[in-house]
Every structure is written in C-alpha cells, then in structure tokens.
Amino acid sequence: MYLLTTFSKILEKIIYDRLIKHIQINNIQGEEQFSCRTSSSTEKAAFKLVDEILNALNHKMMVGGIFCDLQKAFD
Predict the structure, then answer these.
(1) Which secondary structure element, helix H or strand E, spans residue 4, and what is its range?
(2) Which residues constitute the domain of residue 45?
(3) What is the DSSP string of 14-65?
(4) Does residue 71 fall inside a structural domain?
(5) What is the mean pLDDT of each run of 10 residues along the chain (75 residues)?
(6) What is the pTM of this model?
C-alpha cells in the first residue's frame, strides 16, 4: 500500500516538472497567470491589480471589478 503511494508521488513530481519545463520553454503561460510560476506570488498579482487600477484612474478612466470568493468552492 505504501509503495503505491510513494510511487504515485514520485510519478506526480516527474510529470509536474516536465509539464512546467514544457510550459516555460514554449512560453505557453501568459503574463497574467501568476500560479505555477517561479518567482511569482499572490503579492505580485495584487500589486499588478492595484497598479492597473491606479493607472486607469490617473488617466480619468472608469474602473469596475467583479470578484468571486472561491474559498468554499473546493470543500
């Protein structure tokens, strides 16, 4: 039982590493995507959001937003 769990974790890590390498080499992931990236974080995503909002407001543009709380979606 434990051997299967260990094997699946090793296989999962190998597949994850290969998938991330493929995404990075082929530049598949957009700049707007902050998850699963090295040197990326929720702080950078929040900073980019605030920066875009302030930039739009400085140019006298209207700003709107729709936010969804997905905390309970994965229970």
Answers:
(1) helix 2-25
(2) 2-29+40-64
(3) HHHHHHHHHHHHTT-S-TT--TT-TT--HHHHHHHHHHHHHHHHHTT-----
(4) no
(5) 79 91 83 68 85 96 88 68
(6) 0.52
